């Protein structure tokens, strides 16, 4: 699913490079037309008297290979131009580099469409947008208002939206011009690319024929830079932002006036100052005369009568009259360091930028660096002083008192007992020692912190106050294993680590589980194990006790070899699944010190191979989702939401099989909670044999307890290498090594996005196809119906593409934000619509990507949906 992480979208587009290329290729950087002459060799017999006005334009564009005739003698000037044809015409005229993205922007413009690259190129460069609902309507005739809007976007870029449209309000049909097109109409008419009709109408909904389109493009190509600049509002930039100034300082300012295409204006700059802080000359040299905050402004008057302005604040500080040091007192031990900051205030009480001061220390206690860091070297008392020298004024100083203490060391006193049982009191005492390692016997009331590191890697702290140089802590633990402790405190030297051990208690129950998984297909055999645990859940792997085993029913399978004992290194027997789908409970009993101890586990017999595993609701988790969240809390949240299966990312082509630690920790706990866990693999297929070898390694990997993933989700989305040959090579290798019955799920794009994928090869090798159908790919609001109608057809699309009307499909939905803009994640309403559409379409399940990127609104909708 790397593509999902790569994809992003933005509403802002930059056309500086494009516009420069337009100017160079179409003569827009010249003030005179470049296509005034026609090619006399071009001759069409159907132009006639009615279209003679368009002949120079047609000849020029034919010569430039921008348009062509229907044949050598016919141009078809009256034929209407479609939206796709005009997009191509405009892209060719602008000489824009063609793009061909993997994912179509518009649902009705697939990669196979003849105009795909031209439409995508026009969209990428901001010349066109769709007609709504991810459609472009490429075959519809192009309207006059759309033609001029595309032209306006090409010539004026971002300036189009701010264009004055008063000149077109004289058209009698002005109100019928769509608001989005009014800037384009204004630009095209002011640049004399198009005109209104003699009846004072513009006819925005009117259609454009081939002769008109040629004339419009011809006129566009002859628009000069000066004409464009006459409509644009340039931006003035003051290049030198001032630092804080003092009275008498001088600061030089410069300003640049630039149009959107990057060209600059030589119009003179008029400088002025507001706020009474100083004066500025005609060259932009500012002289500070009074303290306070003011403004320097640059004004430019353009030839078209417009004025543009820009300003920057300027602050002039009064002389500094006061320094304040932080902290205002220091107490520390020799060997420690402390940063000191300086705040300066002027005579008006205003805070000003920190000045450069000189530091001094009295008392022979340490040194201060130029940046204000005090290093304590020996015990004693003294003073640190900061001095600011100002020209023509008395120095300003500030001081703070310093006490440097003799450092005390911390030592954890040894106890006679280092091994404890769960719940037993564990005393820890910390002794203060002086610099000669002698006990400090006076009560100094110091706060001492004890840091405890637990067997599972977790840590916590306890705090106590010393009494006569000793701090006493009382601990109690039930988790068996080795603990380490260290002591620390302010101005104290940290102790070395000490340790103690908590021993497990007596056997109290049995932890019963199946390996490699509690999910079993008919006739499949799994091993059963029982490990003794104490009252607190500590595992006793080496306790061997004879067991008795019983099943809650016999219709789902049978138990064999009732001759085992407890212990992680031994099996109590095996379970062979029957033909009936459902759950059965294995009950195990043993006796310890004359007392019975029991445990049980549930085995799940499922049918339909992979489809039976991924029915219902699922979630996708990356390695970081496992690593950064408590596993027990995660599983509890999933259980509450009704989730049945989890896809856990453990390997990619570039990163290798990196997820063993995740499987070791997550997989057994998930199995014990009744979850299916599918190993999620990203296979690039550049080397299908290497990808297959890695996928097989994941499928066959066993955790220390013996658990294996319940199936493989092969993420096959890299369009560069996803050919039928590579897919067949990879998939055939999986089947030959893992067997025909091993659950394989193919993760790929929806058929509506990628109709040309090797769908029949997917159907040949995979039990389930999981399309990543993400709908929220534009920064806008989505209705319930919009989402529902996108998701609903996908199951049928895939079944038709594969030629298998019964192949299982499970939908992957979106619960992450494709954009950098907050508030552009799918809503709970969208989640509900997607899930209902998947259910109504016959999808065996619905999983969300990703669990930990879902907002509360998204997660609640997902959790509350009943599958």
TrEMBL record:
Protein's name according to its UniProt entry: S-layer homology domain-containing protein
What SUPFAM superfamilies does this protein map onto?
Answer: (Trans)glycosidases, Invasin/intimin cell-adhesion fragments
| PANTHER family noted in UniProt | OUTER MEMBRANE PROTEIN ALPHA-RELATED
Report the leader peptide range: 1-36
- The SLH domain is annotated at 41-101, 102-165, 168-231
Pfam families, A to Z: Big_2, SLH
InterPro entries cross-referenced by the UniProt entry: Big_2, Cell_Envelope_Struct_Comp, GH, Ig-like_fold, Invasin/intimin_cell_adhesion, SLH_dom
Tell whether Signal is among the UniProt keywords.
Answer: yes
Keywords in UniProt for this one? Answer: Signal
Does Signal show up as a keyword for this record? yes
